[in-house]
Automatic annotation (TrEMBL):
Gene3D superfamilies: Jelly Rolls (2.60.120.10). Keywords: Signal. It comes from the Eukaryota. This is (S)-ureidoglycine aminohydrolase. Residues 1-25 form the signal peptide. Residues 230-296 form the Cupin type-2 domain. Pfam families: Cupin_2 (PF07883). It comes from Iris pallida. The keyword NAD does not apply. InterPro entries: Cupin_2, RmlC-like_jellyroll, RmlC_Cupin_sf, UGHY, UGlyAH_cupin_C. One of its GO terms (molecular function) is ureidoglycine aminohydrolase activity. The keyword Chaperone does not apply.
């Protein structure tokens, strides 16, 4: 018994030493680069959302551990981390690879995926009655609509395209897009319009009782059956409300790191991680680290929950 206790203590001390080395070494805590190299630090020359397309896959001392992943799938939530992404050709897109992060196979009523566009690539048109939202996280792409009008979209820019609207995204070099699609929930006498915009052009909105900064990228009118929120947290800030609601969420962490509670589980998350939240799953976030946390959040709005029920 004494021998077992001594060995157990030895291994615990060894794990603690590995953690201290990881936390204090050149890579920074859990494999993160030192804060001077992170986006938003004021000294970085890297693109705004470079950690989304160049993520830390795991702590340095776990990268060679066979089978290691932080990805988790549960009945009412999922955390999909970059080391488990599977890219393949996107159907009907030219020269583009995609990785689905959220899909109806989970239980969602929308899809969220990454599209890696290469030189000379072009998007496909969504299925009948499907609306599309695109957000640029790396490079740039050109949006073209049915009238032939084109618009260049750079990092932090986005486009909303109503269902059954002819359009395409073209890429002369390379770009990475976050794409969200869902079947439009028709509301009589309400018709959404095409939206082109940029995050930094959207005003900060009031968040009573909360400390985070909030921007909404789409109009809040009834014509739109979902919205996209950009939420910013400084280190140490957290959600005051422990949310439980009927809305579904799809989330992509664009910058920073923190802890996300989903149901009875607590997950360390970092830039590049995606989350799906089913209706009524308890959810809460706290920002950690030394730099700002920013995430993009899908939320269905402006429709009775019975709209999704087939009688």
């Amino acid at each position: 018994m004494r021998r077992f206790s001594f060995l157990s203590l030895f291994f615990l001390l060894r794990l603690l030493l590995l953690w201290i080395i990881s936390a204090s070494g050149e890579e920074g805590f859990c494999g993160f680069p030192p804060s001077s190299l992170l986006e938003g630090s004021g000294t970085s020359t890297k693109p705004l959302y470079w950690k989304v397309t160049n993520p830390t896959l795991s702590p340095s001392h776990l990268q060679d551990l066979p089978g290691f992943t932080r990805s988790v799938y549960r009945r009412d939530h999922a955390v999909i981390t970059p080391e488990s992404h599977v890219f393949g050709p996107l159907p009907d897109w030219d020269n583009t690879l995609g990785a689905y992060l959220v899909s109806p196979a989970m239980g969602s009523h929308f899809t969220m995926y990454l599209a890696r566009m290469q030189e000379g690539s072009r998007s496909a048109v969504p299925a009948q009655d499907v609306e599309r939202f695109v957000f640029v996280v790396q490079g740039s792409t050109t949006f073209l609509n049915a009238s032939g009008t084109s618009h260049k979209l750079h990092v932090d820019s986005y486009a909303y395209v109503p269902a059954n609207s002819e359009h395409s995204f073209k890429c002369d070099e390379t770009a990475t897009l976050v794409v969200i699609e869902r079947r439009y929930a028709v509301l009589k006498n309400h018709y959404p319009e095409q939206i082109l915009g940029s995050t930094d052009k959207q005003p900060l909105l009031e968040t009573p009782g909360e400390v985070f900064q909030l921007r909404k990228l789409l109009p809040t009118s009834a014509s739109y059956d979902f919205n996209i929120h950009i939420m910013d947290f400084q280190p140490g800030e957290y959600l005051n409300v422990k949310e439980v609601h009927y809305n579904q969420h799809g989330l992509l962490l664009l910058q920073g790191q923190g802890i996300y509670r989903l149901g009875d589980s607590w997950y360390p998350v970092q830039a590049g991680d995606a989350i799906w939240m089913a209706p009524f799953v308890p959810q809460w976030y706290a920002a950690l680290g030394k730099t700002r946390s920013r995430y993009l959040l899908y939320k269905d709005v402006n429709r009775d929950p019975l709209w999704h029920v087939k009688f």
